[in-house]
């Protein structure tokens, strides 16, 4: 039966609803009692440092991405990414400014960092209550946010090439940011680092939410200068004049990392909420997809004395040696080989790399020494290139729990020095590749 409503009935219902809600405070209906209503600088920074490390040191970007590209590891039973037949690695939304859309991916962390910068520059524009130490150290918050942003943009442009950069992180002002050419991004990153270094006050408090250097601003100075060296050396062939302005500046080396104590890394925790995603994949989900790649293992065994870092880098096989799985096999061949031997026949990444509280490495001192060695070989700075190469190798060994003064270390270093005398860049490239294990990008 069709039902009819009179206009009087509709009006009466509307008036009744108005009377019902008039006694309520409608503004409170917009408040979420379970969420903070103010932005906290330290929470934003801690979240960014954690998410950045998780994004790049994880089962996706690293184990199914950069580690395969660098051939540090390879897949054994399901080699689809090892053969480049499946390689989707999205970066998340490039438009969030830290308070908008929440998706996964590096751009979300960049949004949090941009919000920190905005608050540090104009705290009065935001609903934020600052502690005394935060107010005193606002310039340091801005600097740490800018340095960290540069680190992430650097990784993104190395991974993807042209990316949203100049117009990114503007929120609702630009939901479709233009792509900036990589040739413009690289010099711009050096300029951003210089600006951030100019903001740092080592006498003022550093951020309490800093999970890389625990608020020690002198360490951020070293990291920023080290990152400048990396960026400059990477761009040397494309923009030599800009690169040389950094690589010939003695003050940059003097203010860069000076030992392994200066290394930049994020340490995961043992708790279920904050443990390494690689551990989660291997030991919680029970996956066993990745072995050491044969090319990498063989490179570390090419001399009469094996590289002493192998004991940390890999697990021993069932016959007490180190053996890599062939890289890039088609699935049928990979599965046949994998099934033909006991699971311990091939080496896997060592315990230090896959444990719950593993370190997500951002940049190490040995890389600074490799850059110095290359700069010396190019004639940009003084110093013996072979000696600097040796210094880098020994620093790497110390970082990887190896006695760099042992007879095995000496024998290995001397073998590399001999190679460097005949083909310096081959030796430099191999040793830098080896030292940057699990920094595949």
Short description:
By secondary structure, this protein is mostly helical.
Verbal overview:
This protein is mainly alpha-helical and 441 residues long. 50% of the residues lie in helices and 4% in strands. It has 19 helices and six strands. A two-stranded antiparallel sheet has the order 1-5. The longest helix has 23 residues, at 138-160.
Give the arrangement of secondary structure elements.
Blueprint: H1 7-22, H2 41-56, H3 62-69, E1 73-75, H4 106-121, H5 132-136, H6 138-160, E2 163-164, E3 179-180, H7 182-199, H8 217-234, H9 240-247, H10 250-254, E4 264-267, H11 277-284, E5 290-292, H12 294-300, H13 310-313, H14 331-339, H15 351-354, E6 359-363, H16 365-377, H17 385-399, H18 407-422, H19 424-435
Helix pairs in contact: 2-4, 2-6, 4-6, 6-7, 6-8, 7-8, 8-9, 8-16, 16-17, 16-19, 17-18, 17-19, 18-19
């Amino acid at each position: 039966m069709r039902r009819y409503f009179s206009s009087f009935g509709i009006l009466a219902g509307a008036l009744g609803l108005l009377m019902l809600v008039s006694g309520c405070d409608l503004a409170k209906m917009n408040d979420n009692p379970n969420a903070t209503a103010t932005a906290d600088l330290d929470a934003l920074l801690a979240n960014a440092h954690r998410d950045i490390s998780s994004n790049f040191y994880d089962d996706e970007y690293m184990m199914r991405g950069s580690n395969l590209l660098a051939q540090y590891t390879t897949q054994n039973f399901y080699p689809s990414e090892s053969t480049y037949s499946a390689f989707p690695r999205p970066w998340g939304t490039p438009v969030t400014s830290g308070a908008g859309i929440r998706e996964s991916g590096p751009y979300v962390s960049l949004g949090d960092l941009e919000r920190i910068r905005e608050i540090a520059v104009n705290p009065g524009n935001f609903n934020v209550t600052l502690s005394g130490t935060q107010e005193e150290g606002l310039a340091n918050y801005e600097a740490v946010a800018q340095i960290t942003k540069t680190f992430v943009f650097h990784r993104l442009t190395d991974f993807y090439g042209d990316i949203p950069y100049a117009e990114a992180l503007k929120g609702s002002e630009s939901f479709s940011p233009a792509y900036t050419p990589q040739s413009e991004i690289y010099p711009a990153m050096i300029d951003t680092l210089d600006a951030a270094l100019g903001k740092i006050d080592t006498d003022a408090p550093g951020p309490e939410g800093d999970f890389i250097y625990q608020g020690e601003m002198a360490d951020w100075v070293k990291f920023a200068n080290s990152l400048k060296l990396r960026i400059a050396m990477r761009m040397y062939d494309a923009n030599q004049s800009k690169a040389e302005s950094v690589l010939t500046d003695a003050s940059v080396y003097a203010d860069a990392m000076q030992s392994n104590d200066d290394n930049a890394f994020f340490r995961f925790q043992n708790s279920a909420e904050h443990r390494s995603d690689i551990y989660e994949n291997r030991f919680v989900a029970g996956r066993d997809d990745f072995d050491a790649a044969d090319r990498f293992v063989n490179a570390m065994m090419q001399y009469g004395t094996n590289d002493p870092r192998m004991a940390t880098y890999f697990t021993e096989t069932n016959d007490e040696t180190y053996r890599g799985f062939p890289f890039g096999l088609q699935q049928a061949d990979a599965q046949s080989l994998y099934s033909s031997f006991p699971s311990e026949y091939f080496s896997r990444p060592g315990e230090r790399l896959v444990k719950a509280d593993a370190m997500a490495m951002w940049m190490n001192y040995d890389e600074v020494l490799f850059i110095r060695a290359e700069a010396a070989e190019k004639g940009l700075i003084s110093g013996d290139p072979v000696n600097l190469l040796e210094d880098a190798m020994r620093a790497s060994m110390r970082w990887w729990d190896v006695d760099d003064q042992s007879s095995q270390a000496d024998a290995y270093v001397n073998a590399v020095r001999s190679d460097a005398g005949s083909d310096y860049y081959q030796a430099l490239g191999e040793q830098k590749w080896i030292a940057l294990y699990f920094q595949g990008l």
